[in-house]
Every structure is written in C-alpha cells, then in structure tokens.
Write a structure and sequence with these properties.
The protein is an alpha+beta fold and 174 residues long. Helix content is 16%, strand content 38%. It has a single domain, classed as Beta Barrel (Lipocalin), CATH 2.40.128.20. A hairpin with a 5-residue loop joins β6 and β7. Strands 1-2-3-4-5-6-7-8 form an eight-stranded antiparallel beta barrel. Mean pLDDT is 86; it is low at 1-21. The longest helix is centred in the first third of the chain and has 13 residues, at 2-14.
C-alpha cells in the first residue's frame, strides 16, 4: 500500500497533475526539431531541483530513436559525488506534436507520462533547454559536460520571457 501511495504521489508531482499554472502566456516551443540530430547523449548543465534527482551529480540523458517511432530514454547520474554509484532510469518517449517534434511525452513507469517540451535549441544542436507547461521543471542540456559561462548566461537571460524564474536553477556538479 505504501508503495502504491508513493507511485501515485510521484505521478502527481512529476507530471504536473493538480499543479496550478499561473502563467498567462502558453509555453512556446522551438519551431522544429530534427529528432535524428537531437538523439544521442546530453549532459545536464543546470536544472530546477527535482525530488527524483536529489543527490545526483554528473547527470546525463541519452535518447535513441526506435523503429516503432518511440524514443528510448536513459537518464544516468552519480549519487552524492562525481565518483559515486551510478543511478540509472530507463524510459520511453513519444512525439505528440508531429508538426514541430518539439513536444514529447516521456514516461519511466506506466501509466504516468510527463511533458518534455524543447523550448530553446542551438541551431547546431550543441545545447537545448527543456521545460513543460506548468514551469515546474526545467533543464539546460549540452552535448559537452560543461558550457561556456557567457553562453550559459545568455540562455538564462531568456528564461523569464518563457515564464521561468532563473533564480531557481541549480548548476549540476561534475
């Protein structure tokens, strides 16, 4: 019973059920995403703190296109310290807006799916910003483990226009 309560609570928190969206403007995604170029390994540079990532460092996400059109998602981090034990979560994703490929649903356990919206993207796919409509979660991702400070600050400077509070961001220790 306790496990069921935890699972239901996880679903409600992770996927925004019952969250109060206080934003007047809808969250805008990028105009188009080439999923072939987006696939591969990404390093988390910064994110809003999330209970499911507590204690994680050196966080990565790897996306693989599957023959059925879905996307395999493998998130990894080190617990507690950069050389700590590896924690891995495997899930799947699917595109829900085929016009842009910028809106996806991702799930790590059935039946809970979360929004994964690409809201800013480098033309060369060197970095991306991922959010969701309630603005509860946010990730800044890079193809490299670190990001130039000036680039990071320019990405962060655009977040308020998207309805995000940059002061909530925490950089991911490596």
């Amino acid at each position: 019973m306790k496990l069921l309560i935890v699972i239901l609570g996880v679903g409600l928190m992770v996927f925004g059920c019952g969250s109060d969206v206080k934003h007047k403007k809808p969250l805008k995604t990028v105009d188009a995403v080439d999923l072939q170029r987006y696939a591969g390994k990404w390093y988390e540079i910064a994110s809003y703190p999330a209970w499911f990532a507590k204690g994680c460092t050196a966080t990565t996400a790897e996306y693989t296109l599957l023959p059925d059109g879905k996307i395999r998602v493998v998130n990894r981090c080190r617990k507690g310290r950069p050389d700590g034990p590896v924690k891995e979560a495997k899930g799947k994703g699917e595109v829900v807006d085929t016009k842009t490929n910028a809106k996806l649903k991702v799930w790590f356990f059935w039946p809970f799916k979360g929004d994964y919206w690409i809201i800013d993207l480098d033309p060369d796919y060197a970095w991306a910003v991922v959010g969701e409509p309630s603005r509860k979660y946010l990730w800044i991702l890079s193809r490299k483990p670190s990001m130039d400070e000036a680039l990071y600050l320019s990405i962060v400077a655009r977040l308020p226009d998207k309805g995000y509070d940059p002061t909530r961001l925490q950089q991911n220790p490596r």
